[in-house]
Fold:
Amino acid sequence: MSGNTLGTLFTVTNFGESHGPAIGCVIDGCPPGLALAAADIQHDLDRRRPGTSRHVTQRQEADQVEILSGVYEGVTTGTPIALLIRNTDQRSKDYGDIARQFRPGHADYVYWQKYGVRDPRGGGRSSARLTAPTVAAGAVAKKWLKEKFGTELRACMTQLGELPIAFEGWEHVAHNPFFAPVADVQALEDYMDALRKAHDSCGARIRVQAANVPVGLGQPIYDKLDADIAYAMMGLNAVKGVEIGAGFASVAQRGTVHGDAMTPQGFASNHAGGVLGGISSGQDIEVSIAIKPTSSILSPRPSIDIHGQPVEVVTKGRHDPCVGIRAAPIAEALLALVLMDHALRHRAQCGDVQVALAPIAASY
Structure:
């Protein structure tokens, strides 16, 4: 199976299955001399891990990361960095009934058709469990970007199912299980409780932002920064849409509004989302992703088995009623991986990049 590596100079190869002995990744191209310890990675893994609230899967995984190579005496050596996360709470028996059936909305059918074999345990390779190594690799990229440019990455939920979430402030995100930028999440709690009782699921919208991004990242025509961001985000399980800046709202904007006016003090707005002509402008990178409803639900659904016969599928096991709840740290990681890769690519062609010196319009 190919297609498991992201990046050009800073590359991440993801491996493992949901119910295998371990999952992990190999990072290649990380510059030497970066101070790196497991603790630098563990914080983001703890933000993503399952079992952190009643609104997510109750699979209990510590997600303790092990650094197997690429670090000597606390610093990166420039050689491949192997990161391992052991699986400790698999319940493969939950998937015995669907080993020969295809769950609606899942990758079961297409994996079977493409490869002629599939691992049904927890979704195998197609499981969102495989986002943990992505988060681990992203933590390395975030640390390098922070030390090199002062780049800060953050993400929040802006919609849960039918409920839009007003933005009150980034300070609230770390204090509730939804990564919501609001002080009061009771409406979100009630919504998820009702959803779980109905044996149903919902989608979510996630906003991702990178501040203090250097000018000049991205390469036209086919390696545009926003194109690579969209490519990476679409690699995240359940993502069905990506917007940069104003996104689809730009359809209803006039050119007099959408074009971000420039002044000696910087940009007056950021409808472009920090990318012009596929190259970073020095403004905040603004990305929004749409995540579909979880396909694993207890409500019976019509489907077929491997012989093409009609069946009724009930997906048992421990699943997120909304996979978007834990998506914020994953989206941050993916954006960090793309930015670091492009920073190294820019340096290889043009020399060191610089953070914009002129002040720019502050984002909300």
Q: What stands out?
A: The chain has a mean pLDDT of 90. Residues 5-350 form a domain with the Chorismate synthase, AroC fold fold (CATH 3.60.150.10). The radius of gyration is 21 Å. Helices lie at 38-48, 108-115, 131-149, 186-197, 225-234, 255-258, 328-350.
